[in-house]
Structure formats: C-alpha cells, structure tokens
C-alpha cells in the first residue's frame, strides 16, 4: 500500500483546506507517478486528509471519504458533520459530503469513493441516487467492492419514474430572481436536484474573510437521505476547515420556490447549533 509521509499529509491537508476540500488532478498525477500505485490505493492513502475535516461533537467518531471523478481526474474530500443539540438525523455523513463536494465543484460523475469505514445503509441509499451508481466502486480499509454488491435489490430514481440522477447536468426552467440574490446563488439554485418535490433550493454563506460557500438541495428517491441546501453549504464550510462559529459572517441566504417552501425549518434547526447571531434571509421565487 502506498504510504504518504506525515509531512506530505500535513501539506496536502493544508492545500485541500485552501481549495475547500478539492484535490485536483494536478496534485494527484505526480503522486500516482511517484508512488507507482493505482488511484484506489492513492485515495486510501489520502483519507487522513479528508478525515481531518470531520466535526463530530456528538459521536467523536471521525469519518473521511474521498470521491474520485475519472472524467475530470479530480478528487473531492468529504467528512462527517454533526450538529450539537439537534436531531441526529440532521448529521451529514462523510460519503454525502464527498459527493456533495464533487457536485458543487461541477463533477458530473463519481467513479470511485474511498471511505475510512464501511458505508451505513443511509449512505448506500444516498449513493444509489448518483449517475453511474450501478458501477460505483467502493474502497474500504480491508475491501474493494462496488455499490451493487453492498445494496442489492435497491430502490432508486427509476422506481419513481425519474430518469435523471444526482450529478446529471439539468437546470430548471427560467426563473426571475430578485436583486438580493447573487448571480452565483441563482446558478446554484438552478443546479439543485429536486425531482421528487419540484422545490429546488440553494444556500449562500457569505463571509468577510473566507469568501462565499454554497449549498444545493439534493433529493433522494427514498426521501430520508436527502441533503438540505443548508447542510450542503455547512459541509462545504467544514471542508475549508471552518465552522460558523469561527468566521465573520456577512449574510446567510436561503432561496427556494414559493410553491415548495419546505427548507426554512431545517435550515433554522442546523443554524441553531452555532453561536452565530446571523439572521437567515429567506427568499422565495416563483
Ligand atoms: Zn453513512
């Protein structure tokens, strides 16, 4: 197995933090050449980088995952994110975080995911929603397998008549956004994946010194492992090594459709976990 030195892990973690959890092809290729290993082995060796972004105040059980997209050649970190004093069901799992990170960064497929622990049922179901789920390779500490083997006789998008999958590029019909919605937030909204509720939604977290972070709503055919846009955005913040408690906030905005209108409560619930007194701006569009 390829071994990265503690110094390499430290440097790669710092780089990943700066790029909000993205490990680009330009970093992976030289490592593959130097270590003379395959991508699965390298992803496994990089897992400590992803795990370092875990925020698990409840379980103290840190999980890391790295999704790899062979089309772009990039890898995307993910880590579990728990919310103190909130329902455990709001937790973002590492696999969700990695796939969300790939999606937010524009990946349209994930071919391999390496994880520090076997994926729970919730994550197997979440991963079953993505493009290419039937060939998704899963790399675990003691096993290389695929999602099909871990989730036989599965229930997925097609069972609800949905021909599109998570990560597929599909935007919503033209919408007129009010002025207070930035161009970037409008774009994130247009890329949200809400085939079951038809309520696309997105979040923008603006900070004074660390730039902006975005989250998109990602639904699931089984409904429960869906990822709300606020969880998605906070996960992106965590992958930059940050939390709401340690950044100077400018604004937090949730945009969703007036018809659907179902993300405000969950957004408020996860925000309550933090000391921030930042007011959530809630914007409805038609
Ligand atoms: Zn899980």
From TrEMBL:
It comes from the Bacteria. The active site is at residue 95. Its cofactor is Zn(2+). One of its GO terms (molecular function) is cytidine deaminase activity. Zn(2+) binds at residues 93, 120, 123. Substrate binds at residues 80-82. InterPro entries: APOBEC/CMP_deaminase_Zn-bd, CMP_dCMP_dom, Cyd/dCyd_deaminase_Zn-bd, Cyt/Deoxycyt_deaminase, Cytidine_deaminase-like. Keywords: Hydrolase, Metal-binding, Zinc. GO terms for biological process: nucleobase-containing small molecule metabolic process; pyrimidine-containing compound metabolic process. One of its GO terms (cellular component) is cytosol. The keyword Ubl conjugation does not apply. Residues 38-158, 176-286 form the CMP/dCMP-type deaminase domain. Binds 1 zinc ion. NCBIfam families: PRK09027.1 (NF006537). Belongs to the cytidine and deoxycytidylate deaminase family. Homodimer. This is Cytidine deaminase. It comes from Pseudoalteromonas aurantia. The lineage of its organism: Bacteria, Pseudomonadati, Pseudomonadota, Gammaproteobacteria, Alteromonadales.
């Amino acid at each position: 197995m390829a071994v990265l030195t503690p110094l390499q892990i430290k440097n790669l973690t710092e780089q990943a933090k700066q790029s909000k959890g993205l490990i680009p092809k330009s970093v992976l290729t030289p490592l593959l050449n130097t270590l003379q290993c395959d991508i699965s082995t390298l992803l496994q060796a990089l897992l400590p980088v992803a795990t370092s972004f875990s925020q698990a105040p409840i379980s103290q059980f840190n999980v890391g995952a790295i999704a790899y997209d062979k089309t772009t050649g990039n890898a995307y970190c993910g880590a579990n994110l728990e919310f103190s004093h909130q329902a455990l069901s709001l937790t973002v799992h590492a696999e969700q975080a990695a796939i969300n990170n790939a999606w937010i960064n524009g990946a349209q497929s994930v071919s391999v995911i390496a994880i520090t622990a076997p994926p729970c049922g919730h994550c197997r179901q979440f991963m079953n929603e993505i493009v290419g789920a039937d060939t998704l390779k899963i790399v675990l500490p003691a096993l290389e397998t695929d999602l099909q083997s871990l989730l036989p006789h599965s229930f997925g998008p097609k069972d609800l008549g949905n021909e599109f999958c998570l990560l597929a590029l599909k935007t919503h019909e033209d919408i007129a956004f009010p002025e207070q919605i930035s161009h970037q937030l409008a774009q994130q909204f247009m890329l949200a994946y809400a085939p079951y509720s038809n309520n696309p939604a997105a979040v923008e977290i603006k900070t004074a010194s660390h730039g902006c972070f975005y989250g998109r709503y990602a639904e699931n055919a089984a409904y429960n492992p869906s990822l709300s846009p606020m969880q998605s955005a906070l996960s992106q913040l965590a992958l930059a090594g940050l939390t709401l408690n340690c950044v100077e906030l400018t604004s937090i905005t949730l945009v969703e459709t007036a018809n659907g209108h179902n993300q405000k409560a969950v957004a408020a619930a996860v925000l309550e976990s933090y000391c921030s007194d930042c007011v959530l701006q809630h914007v409805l569009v038609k």
